[in-house]
Amino acid sequence: MRWGNANNQERIVILQNLRQRQEAKLGGQDDEHYKNFRVRIDSAFRQVFEDLFSSVALHRIHEAAGFISASIHKPTIWHPDEYAMVSQWENEESLKAFFGETWNQCVVTRGGEKFIVACWVHHYESWDQA
Questions:
Q1: pTM (two decimals)
Q2: Residue 5 CA: distances (Å) to CA of 10, 55, 56, 115
Q3: What pLDDT digit, counting tens, does each position of 48-70 carry?
Q4: CATH classification code of 3-125
């Protein structure tokens, strides 16, 4: 089931599934990983990029095994052409399974090269506060 094609009831089910994933821990381990994808675009393509980023990028990963949550972020006045997506995963293996061999690199999807000037990927592990 895709978010963009889902009705309200289906979206509730998707969100409930995401909440269950967030509450679950694999084997009691706290080894969650966060992937921070940041991109700088050519401002001439702002509207096209925003439409694709908000509809395709986020929804592409929401059903992946090991995916917990994600958020996308718009530019600020300090960096008017930079966008970000932060995704949370159960573990490093989940990232590798979904993104493949290039899981730790910035990969631009086909067609995206015309509006992307630069991109970065950074990975972080959960910091146990206990």
A1: 0.71
A2: 9, 11, 12, 26
A3: 999 888 877 777 888 889 999 99
A4: 3.30.70.100
